[in-house]
Amino acid sequence: MKIAEKKALKRESIIQAALQLFATNGFHRTTIPDIAIKLQMSVGNLYNYFSSKDILAQEIIRYTSEVLGEKIREVNDTDASAQEKIKQIVTVYFTMAKEKPEMIEYFLRVYLSNREVFSDGCEGMVCVSGFITEIMVFFDENVSSGELRNQDFFSAFGLFMGYLGGMVFLKGEEVLPKEIEYYIEDISRNIYNALKA
Amino acid sequence: MEKPHLLWLQSITCNGNTHSFLNHPDLFSILSHYNIVHHPALDGSHSFDDVLKDDVPCDVLILEGSFIEKGFLKGGVEVSFILEKYAKKAKYIITAGTCATFGGVFKQKDPSNISGFCFDLEEKSIRYDAYASKLISLPGCPVHPKWLSYVLLMLANGKQIPIDNLHRPTELFGYTVHNGCTRNEYFEWKIDADNYGLKEGCLFYAQGCQGPYTRGSCNKILWNDISSKTRAGTPCFGCTEASFPQTSLFQTKTNMGIPAKMPLGIPKRAYLSLTGVTKSFKIKRFSTRLLEYDK
User: Fold this and answer.
1) Euclidean distance between the first and the last CA atom of chain B, given in angstroms as a whole number
2) Nearest CA in chain B to A147
3) CATH number at residue A139
4) Disruptive mutation site among B205, B256, B275 for chain A (greatest number of A CBs within 10 Å)
5) What's the number of CA atoms in the CB half-sphere (13 Å) around residue B275?
6) What is the H or E stretch that residue A25 is in?
7) Which chain A residue lies closest to B274 (C-alpha atoms)?
8) Residues of chain B scoring pLDDT < 70
9) Of the candidates A161, A109, A152, A95, which has an alpha carbon nearest to the alpha carbon of residue A132?
């Protein structure tokens, strides 16, 4: 393996370890030495990859946004109807919340809750564009095909992603009486009914 | 060497291209390279009656106006017959304006029968094969006088004119109208123009500007050597495109706020990624009136 490939793998393993710690213990309660210990690497070497905890936090949100964006892109690239795609996106989101809860937890509990960490370098949509772009493509294509009603982007975006984020937040709080996949059917129908032409 | 013979014929037209060319500051210098056989507004060696009845000389034929096979007569003769007669004879055919090139405004009257001379919108018409080897397309509503003079001078000097698949000179139509627009900084940072005629803001996001996907060098070779629609604060209407005229010219069609049509050759994902990023920043210089910023 080439050195560059090794470094890329190491970089990703740092992101994943930090992601878990941040999502579980919170951003401020997690230190760079905590992350280094989890990875069995030296603090000095970790700093070779990320020069500060804030920069690491920003890279994580970019990384999770890209991973989620890739999955939604797979949905966008199919020939399914808007109604079916909504269900697939809801499924992608809830499956990730269940199988890799740290990804969504990080977004809700670190990214949205510690804005000062992201104010310089992750302004607005800069670090979440991998995900937002795919949602834009979804809206654009399905308004263009006549399946969804044309409206302001944020009215539709807030309804769709606010709803999903809220549900995952409730799951994280252990408030939901049922497993999250139980809600996929109804939530998908509600979103479709709200957005359809 | 004898000067080439220039014949300007009109079909279904508003005379806009004729008038546009009359605004060329060097009109007579350009025409001095030609023997003018007949022109709708300038003196020529032959009358229109001669053109109809005789077989007048024709090396370079300029066609203006939309084409119809039957039912449009001049002096009792089908215009299509006159055009074809001289098209066969000419060494070069220039379709001046969008009507003669693609069908344009007058196609709207009878879309199934009215077209351009060699193209029906972007489809090749039945005449295409016969004239393709000598065809030069100069769409525009009207044609820019300097685009026409470029072609006339190149031909008069025996130069080859590089053309694209629709026979448009690439030196003129390789660009989009967006290229050279003085509002490009506002496009880059996604700042809308609030209204028409302002110095500030981009007209693409709300005001219907078609510059980013319209072929033409309006912002490189200025109109009257001074300005262009977008420089003056009016959206580009896409008048050089086969799809001209469109409706809702002063409105950008959007799907949930996303422009329905992308800048030429730009993949939607690339555009949206960039937009999401640039819209995340508020640049003070672009939200301040130009004349106020440095006060």
Assistant:
1) 63
2) B255
3) 1.10.357.10
4) B256
5) 23
6) helix A3-25
7) A129
8) none
9) A161
Query: Which domains does chain B carry?
Result: 5-173 (3.40.50.700), 175-286 (4.10.480.10)
Identity of the residue in A132, A133, A150 whose CB atom sits nearest the CB atom of B255: A150
Which residues of chain A are within 8 Å of residue B281 when distances are taken between CB atoms? 123-124
A174 to chain B nearest CA, in Å? Answer: 34
First to last CA, chain A: 52
Any chain B CB within 8 A of the CB of A136?
Answer: yes
Q: What is the percent of chain A where pLDDT is above 90?
A: 83
Q: How much is the ipTM here? A: 0.83
Whether B248 and chain A come into contact, CB under 8 Å, resolves to no
Q: How many residues does chain A have?
A: 197
pLDDT < 70 stretches in chain A: none
Cβ–Cβ of B256/A150 closer than 8 Å? yes
At A137-163, the pLDDT tens digits run 999 999 999 999 999 999 999 999 999
3-state secondary structure of B254: strand
Nearest to B95 by CA among B136, B38, B143: B136
Which pLDDT score, from 0 to 100, does residue A69 have? 96
Q: How many domains does chain A have?
A: 1
Write the pLDDT tens digit of every residue in A105-131: 898 888 988 889 998 889 888 999 999
CB contact B256 to A (< 8 Å): yes
User: Model pTM?
Assistant: 0.88
Q: Is A123 an interface residue toward B (CB < 8 Å)? A: yes
- The Cα A29–Cα A27 span in angstroms is 6
Q: Is B192 exposed, middle or buried, given 0-12, 13-18 or 19+ CB atoms closer than 10 A?
A: middle
Q: Which helix (H) or strand (E) holds B74?
A: strand B73-74
B58-88 pLDDT, tens digit each = 999 999 999 999 999 999 999 999 999 999 9
